[in-house]
Specification:
Layout: H1 8-27, E1 32-33, H2 34-43, H3 66-69, H4 71-88, E2 91-95, H5 101-113, E3 119-122, H6 126-136, E4 145-147, E5 154-161, E6 170-175, E7 178-187, E8 190-197, H7 201-210, E9 217-220, H8 223-234, E10 235-247, H9 249-252, E11 263-266, E12 269-271, E13 282-284, E14 287-288, H10 289-298, E15 302-308, H11 309-315, H12 318-323, H13 330-344, E16 353-360
Parallel strand pairs: 2-3, 2-5, 3-4, 5-10, 10-14
Antiparallel strand pairs: 1-7, 6-7, 6-9, 7-8, 10-16, 11-12, 11-13, 15-16
Helix pairs in contact: 4-5, 8-10
Length: about 375
């Protein structure tokens, strides 16, 4: 496979990040957990994938997200969010807003629906925050507020689209002598894998509970449940909603998935090598939605909905919205139709992407009325 070459400036930035990670490995006794490597590769200020200046989204980046595929995605979410806000009052908090395009779509639909609610964005990347502000500067009626930390208390709806998959994951190698943590060391040719005993008590407990066969390698995400618990503590009345690709636990740790789900994404190519051009590649792992649901339940939330993206969007009226554009207006209809097909198709995003809703003192919106899959958690 021939991959596009980075520019000299990009290559220099990647080399600086490699040196930074190597320095941390050396200072940590020659080894760091993969979760720490992933955190450094994605979030090192000025050099990490999400905190550097490289293009990430769209045709010129490394992947395409649902809001870029169709503006109807944001319209459906806005109408579902409006339902939730009628019950709870309060506002919207978006976690990791990407380019800001989804926020723009939601706020535009809110104006049409005459919904007035505070809209906040929590974004850890200064570079992406600047990009979001550029995207949203034309929206004057409901200009979002950017937060540096989670609010102490919140009422309304908190959501994240493709946020959980970007949280750092631990890699575990199950062996006949018990689970080992797979981490990163330095070799003459660069970074290399090295397994060590699991020292984190929580990670060891989770790995033992899974009880996977010898030679199985996969991810355990401790950050996603921790995030859910933190959000649940702050949510007084409202809904948590996450959209991402992943499975319930039995499918996540299926025998055929014995090498895990970790991937690097570079210029629309999926790679198995997470050490390829650090800082220029996105690193992701599928979401274990059972772990997310368990964290919500343990924190006093109800799992009010879990379904596929296709079911959620269809229940939310995306085909009705598509029908509002006359089919004989090919220049307008065909791009919308193609986008909706990608969002709904089982071969594209429709089945792999899931939507989970966890609520406190309120009910889930109507988007969860079709194809309930909570039994798969």
């Amino acid at each position: 496979m021939s991959l596009p070459l980075p520019s000299p400036e990009q290559l220099h930035a990647s080399e600086r990040l490699v040196q930074h990670i190597q320095s941390e490995i050396e200072n940590s006794g020659g080894w760091i957990p993969f979760a720490r490597y992933m955190e450094l590769a994605l979030y090192t200020p000025g050099l990490g994938y999400y905190s550097g200046g490289s293009a990430k989204f769209g045709a010129g980046g490394d992947f395409v997200t649902a809001p870029q595929i169709s503006p109807l995605f944001g319209r459906v979410l806005a109408q579902q969010f409006a339902e939730a806000l009628k019950q709870t009052g309060g506002g919207i908090l978006e976690l990791g807003a990407g380019t800001g395009l989804l926020a723009a779509q939601i706020l535009s639909e809110f104006r049409t629906l005459e919904v007035k609610a505070p809209y906040s964005i929590l974004e850890v990347s200064a570079e992406l925050r600047a990009r979001q502000q550029e995207t949203l500067k034309s929206i004057t009626s409901s200009q979002p507020v950017w937060l540096d930390t989670l609010p102490e208390k919140f009422t309304g709806l908190i959501f994240g689209n493709e946020v959980l998959d970007a949280l750092p994951v631990h890699l575990v190698h199950w062996t006949r002598n018990g689970p080992l943590e797979r981490g990163v060391a330095i070799h003459a040719s660069g970074f290399t894998w090295e397994d060590r005993l699991v020292t984190d008590p929580l990670l060891l407990e989770k790995a033992r509970d899974l009880n996977l066969p010898d030679s199985y390698v996969s991810e355990i995400n401790l950050a996603a449940p921790a995030l859910v618990k933190s959000l649940a503590e702050r949510l007084e009345n409202g809904l948590l909603l996450f959209i991402d690709y992943g499975f319930g636990r039995s499918a996540y740790y299926h025998p055929q998935r014995h090498m895990g789900t970790l991937r690097a994404h570079y210029r629309h190519h999926a790679l198995d090598d997470p050490f390829h051009l650090p800082g220029l590649c996105d690193l992701t792992a599928h979401v274990d939605f059972t772990a997310v649901a368990d964290a919500g339940l343990d924190s006093g939330l109800a799992i009010c909905g879990y379904t596929t993206q296709a079911n959620f969007l269809m229940a939310g009226g995306i085909t009705r919205m598509l029908a509002e554009t006359p089919p004989d207006s090919a220049a307008n209809y065909l791009p919308l139709s193609t986008g909706v097909q990608k969002l709904l198709s089982p071969a594209e995003m429709g089945e792999l992407f899931k939507v989970i809703g966890m609520c406190k003192s309120t009910a889930c919106p109507s988007g969860f009325s079709l194809g309930d899959q909570r039994h798969r958690l």
